[in-house]
Amino acid sequence: MFEEYYGKDAVAQNQFSHELESAKQLALKFISTRMRTTQEVTEHLRKKGFSREQIEVAIAFLHAYQYLDDEAYCRAWIHDRIRFHPCGRQKMAVELRKKISDSQLITDSLAAYFSFEEELALAKAAAEQKIRNRTGKKHISREQLSRFLYTRGYSSSIIAAVCAEIHFSETSPDDGWWQDEL
User: Fold this and answer.
1) CATH class in words for 2-64
2) Residue-level pLDDT at 147
3) How far apart are CA 65 and CA 49, in angstroms?
4) Are 90 and 154 in contact (CB under 8 A)?
5) Residue 176 buriedness (CB in 10 A; 0-12 / 13-18 / 19+)
6) Is the pLDDT of residue 8 over 70?
7) Where are the domains of the chain?
């Protein structure tokens, strides 16, 4: 009856509006549990079968009310990562690229919220912990420590600075052994 009175275009418009409202509600529910990125919400709505236009409108709605803010997400994510699961800048960048498509935002956020000095301090702490936790072995080589730090995402300049502060023996056949001094 509605279709006969208003026509097929009105029915289609009503259906689109209803689906658009559903997309907004689903997006709001999705972001209610924790901070999300634009990319995460877009992917979630796409998997639920919404059209590109509906997703764009829902994302614009979330941005208009500041429910989505990728810069704030980067800042919070970097802060939490440093505090609870420290690693190097390179590893953080790789992990953030999985959540945010804007490479410039990631680069700028890491530069603003993760200083070289802070990264160096985290690398030193990781190296000290690695050395302390060596069970059954008294020494660690420069190569082993470098590899350990590299897998944690630290750059070669950070690794070199950490290794420069550790005293390795000159008599070691494979680039030196750590000597109970840090």
Assistant:
1) mainly alpha
2) 96
3) 24
4) yes
5) buried
6) no
7) 2-64, 70-113, 116-165
Max alpha carbon distance in the chain (Å)?
93
Non-local (6+) Cβ contacts of 80 within 8 A are none
Helices (H), the chain: 2-6, 8-31, 38-47, 52-64, 70-84, 89-97, 103-113, 116-132, 142-151, 156-165
At residue 177, φ and ψ (nearest 5 deg) are -120, 145
DSSP designation for 152 = T
Q: Distance between CA 81 and CA 86 in Å, rounded?
A: 6
Q: Calculate the alpha carbon distances from 44 to 32, 82, 103, 149 in Å.
A: 14, 27, 21, 35
What confidence tens digit (pLDDT) does each residue in 68-100 have? Answer: 999 999 999 999 999 999 999 999 999 999 999
Query: If we measure between CA atoms, which residue out of 40, 26, 49 comes closest to residue 73?
Result: 40
Q: 142 to each of 116, 137, 173, how far by Cα in Å?
A: 21, 14, 11
Take residue 131 and report the two structure tokens written for it. 């050395």
Does residue 68 contact residue 58 with C-beta atoms inside 8 Å? no
pLDDT number for residue 169:
53
> What pLDDT digit, counting tens, does each position of 153-174 carry?
999 999 999 999 887 654 444 4
